[in-house]
Amino acid sequence: MLCEPSGLGHTLASVPAFPPVASAPGSKIKILVADDSQSDRTVARAVLQSVGYEIVEATDGQQALDVFERERPAVVVIDVVMPRLGGLETCRLLKSRTNRYLPVLMVSSRNSVQDRVNGLRAGADDFIGKPYDPEELRARIEVLVRTQAAFEGQAASAPSRGRGRRERDRKPDSGGFELGDRAHTPMSPEAFKRRMAVMFEESERNSDPLACLLVDLDRPPWGKDPVDLALRAEVIHGVIKSCIRKIDLVNPWNENGYILLLPNTHFPGALTVAERIARQVRRQSREGGGRRGFTVSIGISFYPNRDTRSLKDMLDLVDAALERAQHEGGGKICLFQHQGYLYAPDDDG
Fold this sequence. Notes:
Layout: E1 30-34, H1 38-49, E2 54-58, H2 61-71, E3 75-79, H3 87-96, E4 104-108, H4 113-121, E5 126-129, H5 134-157, H6 163-169, H7 189-206, E6 210-217, H8 226-243, E7 249-254, E8 257-263, H9 267-286, E9 296-303, H10 311-327, E10 333-336, E11 340-343
Parallel strand pairs: 1-2, 1-3, 3-4, 4-5, 9-10
Antiparallel strand pairs: 6-8, 6-9, 7-8, 10-11
Helix pairs in contact: 1-5, 2-3, 4-9, 8-9
């Protein structure tokens, strides 16, 4: 299930002393903390400054927009409930005002599944409930900083991609992990397994979260025409590519299904992606004129997880989750986090 609040009150006395975070010489990574509670801002500032971040603050959503324009922080931490302009709307506006990747961590004492989903739908990249453990806040910020650095590195390297890079891209079955559209290009099963192994090893080494999704077409009761199934699989693939980031990995898993690996993705983020895929597949299938609508079932597994000690464990669990979703009649999402949890996406959104 989604992690409940730890029950550990975040007080200054509980802030651990961590070694400084690595950054470029003479510079610090700047983080904007927007919260109308002075005590909560004080705690967040102490936790993050203790590991070398530079903190700028805002007391409401409108001030957060002004501070963002002036300071241009690398990461934003936003409380959901604030005066003048709430956290959800602030997040949407921040995301719309920049053409670079801006990681946003939503913070709230409201910690239900729906609250998390609302935050992620608003564009947040992660969600943490109050009261939080200081080390958890630090860890989640570290993940967002690494993800932001990966996007910045991708953008910086784009103009320098010349013939040598294109020649390397043409080599078949490359096992190395690269950012960009190539992660969405179908590969042989052997090459994809090597890519998955690299991604899993990176998550283990950096203690980063990793989500695995299996998306499979629910077989229609009116038949299994191969041409019709191929067209449906094409719709599913197009929807998946429109719902994931360039750093995510997708590949065919069977004749009508796909497997996805989402780095730096926790439980709520994976649920949001799965919900979006299921909803858009259903919507697009109904927009096909005379073509009858269809649905997909989705299984999800995670790392870290007490039952996931290897890539094989993750794949076994996501397969079991998909089977459970299909067994329940299709059109369901099953998330495996210590045990399976079913979720039925609606048609709204």
